[in-house]
Amino acid sequence: MFNKKRITLVGIILLLIAGGIYGYFRLIVGKRLTPQASAKILPESASTMLFMETDPEVWSELEQYGTTEAQAVWQSSLQELEQEFLPDANIDYEEDVAPWLSGIAIANFPSINPFSQEENVLLIAGITNSLKAGNFLRSLESNEETEVRQRQYKGVTITEVKTAQGDRASAAMLQGYVLFSQQGNLIEQTIDTAQGDPAFASDEGVQKLLSQGLNLENPAAQVYFRNYTQWLGNNFSGSGLDIIESAVMGVSFEAEGLHLQTLALSAETNFLSLSPNDSQLLSEFPDSTLAVINGHQLDQVWSQVVRQSEDNPVLGIGLSVMRRWAKSWDLDLDQDVFSWLDGEYAIALFPTEESSLPNLPLAGGILIQSSQREVGEQTLAKLGKIAAKNPFLDQETETLGNTTITTWEDPSQQPLLSYGWLQDERLMVTVGTPFRIFAQQQGERALKNSRQFSAIAQQLPETNFGYIYLDMQQGMTLLETIPQQPLKNLSPEAKATLNSIRQIALTASQPKPSLRQIDLFLSLESTATERK
């Protein structure tokens, strides 16, 4: 019953049930568990803490997400998961567990013995109805032979259960909560912490993140990283991520979809520190835009990355490779590429019937705001000289209104790339379509004011560095119609899940000098809307 794969978490609890722990639940007065309460009794040595809310109302939005087909896929996956972990149990979470369980925290600890198969995991459960909890656990009692032993540790009773196969687990009741672990010493350390030893919450970074809190509406799950660099390990040393001290990631199920958020604390307050972006260029793209990446101040981003590389060997090597590659094209990354990118930029894909891309009704559009047009023109001239050496590329110049347009064409005179300065400080580039096609759509039915973009932007921080946006509905429709049929090999389950996503948007922001925030929102179809 208790194999090595299942002994973690669920297996630990079932093993304790087999030892008759249900009887002790009747002896405690339980209470609701919170992330703050968990962090106060977790030992400081814990590397991560996952907290899961068990209130059914928090998870109720899941029932309305997705199409009918997607709901069927997700229900099937949940049933398979239940069979994997509870093959012999007949459990209905809402009826059997929800009435008494109130919050779960799962903590991971660094392994002392690298050769041990046992997980260094501690589970803390909030119990609001100890009588119902005891009755439920008693109903799961196993006939498996177990050895049960109780011992005292600093005034707290620890129950230890061991099977004939050598599987073991420990449990204790502490401050109205129940502790479970394979490792008895983790139970002891938690008792020590509750009686005054340094706690997970004692860490300055964790303390700040707990105080700050995620900007989510009723987060269903959140995971805290006490020492993010240590958690990443040596493989990521020098990657640039090691400037992060502590972090928290969370998810909430909201009316419009799934909201994921990450908060990261960094001692280097100036790294990638930018002013907010007003994303005005999104008003120049049509509402039919399929995908867009929008940001600003790439020159500052580059300068800060260069400064960071002085203390980061891995990053320094990467920049050296980039510089050599640019040099092979007679370009200086600092002067020719990044120095003039001091304003807002936006890179987008939009559908068009006048695409020069074979069997793909798509084109690319790029808008760049720059206060250094002269430098930008010099860089474009260098690129033009490089292109002129290609016998399969022709360059043509024409005028559209007051704009001089340069177009690179293939031998069949299909436009591959074109560019021109619409205003003194605004460069427009098109890929795979004539310049006039994108120019004619400027300001008409703008993406920024569209129903679909506005709806998802309202779910994200208004003050941010820019957006990454993808219209999944339009993208799936497009992929269904093109001759290449890239979706034909997708499983019905994967296709149903993708069809349930309307749009995806991501933003980055900096609420405080030492705090970075990333928000990802998935706007999802609703079964309620589908029924209408």
What does this structure look like?
The chain is of the alpha+beta class. Among the domains are: 9-202, no CATH class; 296-445, no CATH class. Helix content is 32%, strand content 29%. The chain has 19 helices and 20 strands. It has helices spanning 10-18, 22-25, 35-41, 56-59, 68-85, 93-97, 130-139, 184-194, 204-212, 228-232, 298-309, 313-328, 333-338, 373-388, 435-440, 451-457, 472-481, 492-499, 527-531; strands spanning 48-52, 101-108, 121-127, 146-153, 156-163, 168-174, 177-181, 221-225, 244-254, 257-266, 291-296, 344-351, 362-369, 394-400, 403-409, 415-423, 426-431, 467-471, 501-512, 515-524. The chain has a 20-stranded antiparallel β-sheet, sandwiched between helices. Helix 11 crosses helix 12 (313-328). The chain is elongated.
Structural key phrases:
single chain; 19 helices; 532 residues; elongated; alpha+beta; 20-stranded antiparallel β-sheet; disordered N terminus; 29% strand
Q: What's the story with the biggest beta sheet? A: 20 strands, antiparallel
Number of strands: 20
User: What portion of the residues fall into strands of 2 or more residues?
Assistant: 25-35%
Distance between the termini: 47 Å
Task: Please state the average pLDDT score.
Answer: 83
Helix-and-strand structural type: alpha+beta
